[in-house]
Amino acid sequence: MNFTGLIVGLSAFLFIGMFHPIVIKAEYRFGTGCWWVFLVAGLLAAAASLLIRGYILSTVLGVFAFSCFWSILEVFEQKRRVEKGWFPANPKRLHTYNFRRKR
Q1: Whose CA is closest to 75, among 26, 29, 18, 40?
Q2: Is 58:46 a contact under the CB 8 Å cutoff?
Q3: With 0-12 CB in 10 A as exposed, 13-18 as middle and 19+ as buried, what is 28?
Q4: Are 37 and 26 in contact (CB under 8 A)?
Q5: How far apart are CA 87 and CA 46, in angstroms?
Q6: Which of 12, 39, 53, 87 has the fewest CB atoms lying closer than 10 Å?
Q7: Model-level pTM?
């Protein structure tokens, strides 16, 4: 039996589930300025994926890398969700948000 597909699928599922709260907390604490952390982590994981010989680990690192890259977009989307009132804003960084006023 070949478990490669299941392992890669499970890792993708876990990374997506793991990055969702990480993005929310990162935007709350650091704002959108933390996007470069996801970029660096993604680049390191992508480079490691190219250098590792093991097929499964290389693939899982590639999934992790692109989860990091996707999180860059999600940090900026999270800011928009905060501005819409869907998530709480950090009271220490209220000046960074562009809240829409209700009429």
Answers
A1: 26
A2: no
A3: middle
A4: yes
A5: 31
A6: 53
A7: 0.89
| Pair of tokens at residue 85 | 């009132």
Question: What is the number of residues in the chain?
Answer: 103
Question: Quick one: which of 25, 31, 62 has its CA closest to 47?
Answer: 62
Q: How do residues 9-34 score in pLDDT, each as one tens digit?
A: 999 999 999 999 999 999 999 999 99
**In whole angstroms, what is the distance from residue 100 CA to residue 34 CA?**
24
Reported for 43-48, long-range contacts at CB under 8 A and 24+ positions apart, including other chains, are none
The residue type at 37: V
- Residue 98 in contact with residue 72, Cβ under 8 Å? no
Q: In this predicted model, what pLDDT tens digit does every residue of 36-83 receive, in sequence order? A: 999 999 999 999 999 999 999 999 999 999 999 999 999 999 999 999
Distance CA 36, CA 55 (A): 28
pLDDT at 103 over 50: no
